[in-house]
Amino acid sequence: MSNESRDNLLAHDSFISADNLEAANFNNNLNGNGNPNVNANNNVIRDYFEQSSHPIAAFFFIAFRLGALLMYLLGSIFTDNFTLVFVVTILLLAFDFWTVKNVSGRLLVGLRWWNEIQEDGSNRWVFESAHPNRKANSGDSRLFWSVLYATPVLWVLLALTALITVKASWLVIVAVALILNVANVYGYTQCDKDAKRKWATGMAAQSAFGSLGSGASGFIGKAVTSGLGNFFGSR
Question: Where are the transmembrane segments (predicted)?
Answer without folding.
Answer: 56-75, 81-100, 143-164, 170-189
